[in-house]
Amino acid sequence: MNVDFLPLNGTDYVELYVGNAKQSALYYQYAFGYELIAYSGPETGIRDRASYVLKQGKIRLILTSPMQPEGPIADHIRLHGDGVKVLALWVDDAEKSWKETTTRGAVSVEAPKTLSDQFGSVKVASIKTYGDTIHTFVERKDYSGVFLPGFMPKKSSYTPTPIGLQYIDHCVGNVDLGEMNKWVAFYENVMGFKLLITFDDKDISTEYSALMSKVVSNGNGYVKFPINEPAEGKKKSQIEEYLDFYKGPGVQHMAIATDDIIHTVGELRKRGVEFLEVPSSYYEDLLDRVGKIDEDLQPLKDLNILVDRDEEGYLLQIFTKPIQDRPTLFFEIIQRKGAKSFGKGNFKALFEAIEREQELRGNL
Ligand code: FE2
């Protein structure tokens, strides 16, 4: 029998290190409709950082800034700019998760420890993944507080309406040329994930630039990590541009699921979020390519939402432009209608759209 040595209940939270967490927190509330629920910082006895916890659906984003120029958070931001530091995984046994992975070769960042306050205790432990990114195992079955011990509830006087963001569908990592298979092997051997899909440079190349991608998934399919590496093209791959500006491997995008993408993207656009644009010719033969869909074509075209079909159904998706000035992290909004794939039919149109942006930045 094949026992899953690292059972995961899902993503617990994603923590970003950012230059100005107070202002970023307002951006995510205003533009993406997240609710501010908790805070830790000097007022809660944490001297070296301020952290804001934002929630929508099952998604928890933590935004953290350092209080001083010294230390690992400031170093991370100086090197990488704003970016994802922690992909935290919700487990029933943090100590066992840490032991199972470190005995299989994971590099420990923090051995299991217990955090406590009046609401109970949480066990956490962390291991390294690609670049400076880490996975933190979070065991919270004995905790009833707002987030983690050390955080206090915090509300904002500004409460935007949520826009239908439900959960994190997948988180994508960009790694160096020739390193994709190493990281796929890490997820397979160290974390017990399975290889789900492989895209080679024939699937994902435009006239100019290319990339390769493999998707790994945990046992129950709740956690999916596509891993990209650049491939040889006539010009610079979008993955190379990311690596040049993030200064190494890191999280390229988080895909967030919605069950009404037309509403979600309409709201995001109204609130100023910028998206990649595909040419209107994309929509001319769309229904020939994907067959019958429930949505009207016009709002999809107006909002520039893409559609792709696989054997099990179809999906709707759209990608934001990078959400900081460095061309690094961005978001995908995805609505699945049966399809479990990642929009392969859209790769060409999308990558051409990315290349137009790279060209404008002088990075192609
Ligand atoms: Fe994606």
Give your account of this protein's structure:
The chain is of the alpha+beta class. The chain folds into two domains: 10-153, 2,3-Dihydroxybiphenyl 1,2-Dioxygenase, domain 1 (Roll); 165-361, Roll (2,3-Dihydroxybiphenyl 1,2-Dioxygenase, domain 1). It is built from ten helices and 17 strands. The radius of gyration is 20 Å and the shape is globular. It is 25% helix and 35% strand. Strand 7 (120-128) and strand 8 form a beta hairpin. It has a nine-stranded mixed sheet. Strands 11-12-13-10-14-17-16-15 form an eight-stranded mixed sheet. Fe (ii) ion binds at residues 170, 172, 253, 255, 332, 342.
Q: Estimate percent helicity.
A: 25-40%
Over all CA atoms, what is the radius of gyration? 20 Å
Q: Please give the largest β-sheet.
A: 9 strands, mixed
Order of helices and strands: EHEEEHEHEEEEEHEEEHEHHHHEEEH
Shape: globular
Give, in spatial order, the strands making up the sheet with the most strands: 6-7-8-5-1-4-3-2-9
Small molecules bound: fe (ii) ion
Number of domains: 2
Q: List how many beta strands DSSP finds.
A: 17
Helix and strand content put the structural class at: alpha+beta
Known CATH architecture of the largest domain: Roll
Strand content: 25-35%
The top-level CATH class of the largest domain is: Alpha Beta
| CATH fold type of the largest domain | 2,3-Dihydroxybiphenyl 1,2-Dioxygenase, domain 1
Mean pLDDT: 95
Question: What is the terminal-to-terminal distance?
Answer: 50 Å
Number of helices: 10
CATH superfamily descriptor of the largest domain: 2,3-Dihydroxybiphenyl 1,2-Dioxygenase, domain 1
Please mark out the parts with pLDDT under 50 across 5 or more consecutive residues, or reply none.
none
